[in-house]
Model the fold of this input.
Amino acid sequence: MHKTKEKLYEEIKDIKSKREFEKDIDKITIECDGLLDADTAALLLIDELGRNKQNIVKIKELKPNIECTVIGKITDINKSRNFNRKNGSTGKVINLEISDETGKCGLALWDKDVDLVKNKTIKLGTNVKIINGYIKDGYNGIEINVGRWGLIEIEPEKIQDATKEKNSENKTIKGNLIEIEPTHAFFKDNGEFGFVTNIKLKTNDKIEKIIVWGEKVKEIKKLKLGDFVEIKDIDIRQKNGYKELHINSKGTIKKL
Done:
């Protein structure tokens, strides 16, 4: 289900005029350099104003066919799986378990959000806040779905650790930009939000996947698929026996 900015305005129409609301949405999208669409920016504004808190629901109170915010801890993670849609495209989903002091239920992440588990941004013990999650009656009971119109807040210290972690080495990569994934927003402990996305570069001998953080996301979004780029000072991190490539404020991105 999709809450448009028009529907979201109903939550704050008693404290902001429609004109003020639209101006605030424009401000957020400009500040984010177009990384978020107007509906998502509206959702962030509602949360910032505290009106989204009225929809925070404890797990034991969840009911099918509602949209709400749920806060809890990840207590189980299953394997991801691929599936075929009716239009012929392929999707992927991963089922997790989320718990709070009142109980536990399922949590389904779809498509690009699955990578939050694969890259260990979300793991066992991670505290998350699901904003605008859609509740349905799943195969094993009540299930929260985070689809296109949902957002995930992840423990700020986890995000900060990912960007501040010491690295074993760094490197430079040159290649053609062949993929830019949708941007994910995460909330920092100072109340602001940052961005992360994944890109792929095709070099002479292989395809490299790079995780892009913060302001570098804005730089990447200005490039086009097919552009030949040079990325310097890429952080290489060892995670569970394999290497991850990260680019943050210390690195540089240049179109050649």
